[in-house]
Write a structure and sequence with these properties.
The chain contains 2 helices and 32 strands. The protein has 411 residues and is of the alpha/beta class. The strands form 3 sheets. The chain has a 23-stranded mixed β-sheet that branches. Strands 1, 2, 3, 4, 31 and 32 form a 6-stranded antiparallel β-sheet that branches. Keywords: Membrane, Transmembrane, Transmembrane helix.
């Protein structure tokens, strides 16, 4: 005879088996879902790499248009690609998706900097003189009149070689810039539209979104705020950027821009008249500061970097047609520049400046209490070889081969 308790035990065991079986089936179901999702995400990541390779290729040239691709023709691997100008750099956005799974990526690109020249000086039939502790490391494109040693304030040239590299002849003008990029920059310099800038604390905009344009109508000073992302600031008058302002990846356009001493950030500054950067500022890579003189401009357009400041990126002054008051890039004492300096006019130098990269100009200037020296390099360290191998340049410089790489991943 079977006891009644045995039936109770059987029922309990059956329930336990049923619960365990249901749990195993549930775990197997969700495990399968996760495996499928992982497989989709792996495939999407592969599509990101494929889409990135397409965008960085030489054939991907169109700006401001979305390109929708089915990568393998099976209607399962869709990517949306776009390319826009962000100041002097290219900005790419990519979106790849399958079902509800989506991956978005955005980045700046730059051109591989293969130029081994440390200096380019346009040939105006005058030599360039070196004195004091000047050292030039890297190749040079110089006037046919060449290099010569000089005494300045009773001090001779102290180096063994006048240039540690090869010398070739320069042309009458500087290598040309990309006019398409300059036209777009001038459009923003002439623009006056946008949202009112009434930010009290911070504002950020993803590079997956459309750019936000703020017009600083009556505001002449940007205070202690943080502005980051795909944002453009435009003003009709002088903009003063406070030392406590935090700018990251934004563009600023104005007739004149003044950056207070002690500022730290990464941004792109564009002006028609002047950009004055104070003492002990730090501009992180990739930054840009450039003046673009109007054809009817009556004043000397100038970028000046204050004493003890550090700039990583590109300093530039440009005019389409040579004027009596040529554009200028001016560097204060003890400045450090990592990158490139390009001036369609003059580069004015103080003593004890270090430039890790390349300089291009029509003429160099140095002012002492006694004399104005032209085409003299005094106590200057100019070294192309210690520029970081990861440094990428801008497509604003026209080169025979514009091979691009990812410069910075963006949010």
């Amino acid at each position: 005879m079977v006891k009644a308790a045995a039936l109770y035990i059987v029922i309990v065991i059956s329930l336990l088996i049923a619960v365990i079986s249901a749990s195993l089936l549930t775990v197997a179901f969700y495990y399968r879902l996760e495996v499928q999702k992982k497989a989709r995400m792996d495939k999407l990541l592969e599509n990101v790499q494929s889409g990135t390779a397409i965008m960085l290729s030489e054939g991907f040239t169109k700006y401001d248009e979305e390109l929708i691709l089915d990568l393998y023709g099976d209607e399962k691997d869709s990517v949306i690609l776009s390319k826009t100008k962000w100041g002097v750099f290219d900005q790419f956005a990519l979106k790849t998706f399958e079902l509800k799974d989506t991956i978005k990526r955005s980045f700046f690109s730059g051109t591989i900097f293969t130029d081994q020249n440390a200096i380019y000086l346009a040939d105006e039939d005058r030599p360039i003189s070196v004195s004091g502790k000047t050292t030039i490391t890297g190749n040079g494109q110089l006037p046919k009149a060449g290099l010569k040693q000089a005494y300045v304030d009773g001090t001779p040239y102290l180096g063994k070689e006048m240039i540690y590299g090869t010398i070739s002849d320069s042309g009458r003008d500087l290598p040309p810039l990309d006019e398409t990029a300059i036209k777009k920059i001038r459009l923003y310099l002439d623009s006056s539209g946008g949202l009112d800038f009434n930010i009290k604390d911070s504002v950020s905009n993803s590079f997956q979104n459309k750019e936000l344009i703020y017009h600083l109508a009556d505001l002449q000073k940007i205070g202690a705020v943080k502005v980051s992302g795909k944002i453009i600031l435009i003003s009709d008058t002088t903009i003063n950027i406070n030392a406590d302002t935090r700018l990251e990846d934004v563009q600023v356009y104005a007739p004149a821009i003044v950056v207070e001493s002690g500022f730290k950030g990464s941004c792109q500054l564009f002006a028609t008249d002047s950009i004055a950067i104070g003492k002990d500022c730090v501009f992180e890579y990739p930054s840009f500061a450039g003046v673009f003189k109007p054809e009817d401009g009556k004043m000397q357009s100038k970028v000046s970097l204050g004493e003890g400041s550090k700039f990583s990126g590109i300093l530039l002054s440009y005019e389409n047609k040579r004027s009596d008051l040529q554009t200028m890039v001016s560097l204060g004492k003890n400045c450090l520049v990592n990158g490139e300096i390009y001036a369609t006019g003059y580069i004015k130098l103080e003593r004890d400046i270090t430039i890790q990269g390349k300089v291009s100009a029509k003429r160099f200037m140095l002012q002492t209490p006694q004399t104005l020296y032209e085409n003299y390099l005094i106590d200057l360290v100019l070294n192309r070889k210690i520029l970081s191998k990861y440094y990428l340049s801008s497509t604003i410089f026209k080169r025979e081969k514009q091979e691009q790489k990812i410069l910075k991943w963006l949010h």
